[in-house]
Amino acid sequence: MRLLCNSLKMKIPLKLIVLLCVLILVINSCKDEDPKPFKQNVSLEIEHTWNDSILSFDSTYVWEHDFKKDTISPTTLIYHINHLTLFTTDSLKITSNQTYYMVDFGSKAVLPENISFRTPTEGIKNYIFAMEFTIGVADSLTNAAGLLNSQFVAPMYWGLISGYINFKFEAKTPKSTLLYHIGGYKLPYYNARKIKIVFNKPYYLSEQNTLTISSDILKLFNAVNVIDPEKISEIQEPNKDSQRMADNFSGIFSFKSFHKS
Q: Are residues 209 and 260 in contact, defined by beta-carbon separation less than 8 angstroms?
């Protein structure tokens, strides 16, 4: 028996033994990320800030610019975030469970439900690396016909202009009240904006995942364009000032974190 075992060992080439060892190591290293027979879920959280501070309606914020200081106390923040899509490294697009959402920061609510994604196929290994969405309601028919009015409890709809407010921010300053109602879906004031956020690296999806992005409201005033609250304290119709503020939307949002539940 011992002779038979020895003879068998001698007949197995050394290269084959090495190859088998490498294969075993590869299989063991991939165990944690083997595709499982489930669809992956991603919950989106939005952390609102003012520069490096968590945004609060009970706080006052100071913005220093142009050798002066603006003191701003936010009172209202509501905006539409629509057509959300996650991109995978395999060129798969994962769309959100709803097409249209409205974020109401003061009510700590997202309507009609919290933003989430669900992969369409089970058992597929997915790595996400970016997300795209639109701030505002871009579709002309949806705006003109008020098609979202039944979907939201308190839609931001301009009856006289027949269109949605894409982004509403209101605040108090020592000198005035700030009213910024940014909308417009017709040229030359087409004020919805498509935004793409690229993550710091690709992230593997497990069954339950949470993606967090940051929304820095200071950038509403200071991104592509500088909006001086003393010079522009009110925007309540589509115009050049609303267009300049809409151009700042892309600077507001950035990647924050990703973790598996």
A: yes
